[in-house]
Amino acid sequence: MIDLTFITGKISYDELSSLKNTDLSDQVDALKEDMLQVEYSASLILDVGWYPSFSKDGCFQIRAIKDYEWSAPLFFSQASTIEVLIIEMTAAQKEISKVSLML
């Protein structure tokens, strides 16, 4: 299981935490586009998915979105391991915090 206690927003959808902290190629059946969505104030969202779905050659995509502008994310990154995913999710949360302080 992936520990998401570092998340500061409200988790509205979570299929990410059920992944094992092991080799992702052993979990391909669980890797899909919609893995995690976290809501923050001021219409800010942290979104995590695996692209392309169910492909061992894919990667996580991490986005910070404001006002549902999916085509223009505030933050975008990719990760091919759970360790890098956590680092990038933390970076996305920092960006979300900066933006929410300016609002």
Explain this structure to me?
The structure is a single chain. The protein has a five-stranded antiparallel β-sheet, covered by helices on one side. 20% of the residues lie in helices and 30% in strands. The protein has 103 residues and is α+β, with helices and mostly antiparallel strands. It contains one helix and five strands. The chain has one domain (10-102). The radius of gyration is 13 Å and the shape is globular. The mean pLDDT is 93.
**What percentage of the residues does DSSP assign to strands (E)?**
25-35%
Shape: globular
Q: Counting H and I runs of at least 4 residues, what is the number of helices?
A: 1
The ordered string of helix (H) and strand (E) elements is EEEEEH
Q: Between the first and last Cα atoms, what is the distance in angstroms?
A: 35 Å
- Main beta sheet strand tally, sense and closure: 5 strands, antiparallel
pLDDT averaged over residues: 93
Uncertain residue segments: none
In spatial order, strands of the major sheet run 1-2-3-4-5
Task: List the defining traits of the structure above.
single chain, 103 residues, alpha+beta, 5-stranded antiparallel β-sheet, 1 helix, 5 strands, 20% helix
Task: Describe the protein's topology.
Blueprint: E1 10-14, E2 36-40, E3 44-51, E4 59-66, E5 75-79, H1 82-102
Offer a concise description of the structure.
With 103 residues, the protein is of the alpha+beta class. Helices cover 20% and strands 30% of the residues.
